[in-house]
Amino acid sequence: MTNDLESSTSIPSRTESTAPPGWLRLGVVAAASAVVGGLAAAWWYKKTLTQLQQAEMSPQNPEIRNSEEDFSEEG
Question: Which ranges constitute the DSSP H helices of 1-75?
């Protein structure tokens, strides 16, 4: 005979655990990693484009002289 205190509804079963399954946690971590990686790549790309645009607009360094002689073939 079973007691009213020891019924099957009061004993937690393994299938009713409160922790999410391992594959779900792994999926959440993978999704978060992909989002963070994407944001980091977008930030780096934007920073690089900004630097290139600033370099294009700034005057050239007077110490660097490009002349036709530098590009001509010697021979």
Answer: 22-57, 68-71
Amino acid in the structure at residue 49: L
pLDDT category at 58 given cuts 50, 70, 90 is confident
Q: Is the full-model pTM beyond 0.70?
A: no
Domain count, the chain: 1
Residue whose C-alpha is closest to residue 46's, from 54, 56, 57: 54
Q: Is residue 1 part of a domain?
A: no
In a domain, 9, yes or no: no
Within a domain: 67: no
Q: Is residue 66 one of the residues assigned to a domain? A: no
Give the span between the Cα atoms of 74 and 9, in whole angstroms: 93
